[in-house]
Amino acid sequence: MRLQSGDILVEREWPSSNTADPELVSPQDDEAKIALLMVVVDHMLDRCEETMQHTCRTPLCWLPSTKPQTCYPKPFILVALKSSKKKYRQLLKRFFAFTFRAYRMPVDVRRRLTGIRFKKEQLRQMRAIWEHRAWIEVDFAQGRWPGSRDGGENTQGGAEDGGEGEEEEGISEEDEEEAD
What we know:
The protein is mainly alpha-helical.
């Protein structure tokens, strides 16, 4: 793959050699999309926290339960320290970014360099997010959603799932081989 201006090259040092493997390239457009996806993850977590704050005790006791027949005696609670909350969010966003970078890699390169093999349902869900119609209106040059004046923080411009009437893309042959 030829590097273009703005592409991100993730070099990987092999333990037995001094040479880097330049096959891990994340195109600038993908990185811009992933950066905005991280804003969406933040908003998703904000909504989860807000929902939890307005949920009565009983459902919150079921969240930490490990057995389907037994309710845990204490309700699930959010972490108290802001620094802990920040660390959890950063970890989750790193996971999402890693997962989508892996998804965008050619299947053979992904398998050879990372050993990652996605299942059909995982591929379907990642494709639904990656190709969602909300991305059509995104201004990648500015790094923000339509109508946003806050540097990408406004995800109201169509980032939510449209529900009925939405067509689903099929799985490519390359992905089909991987999922088998």
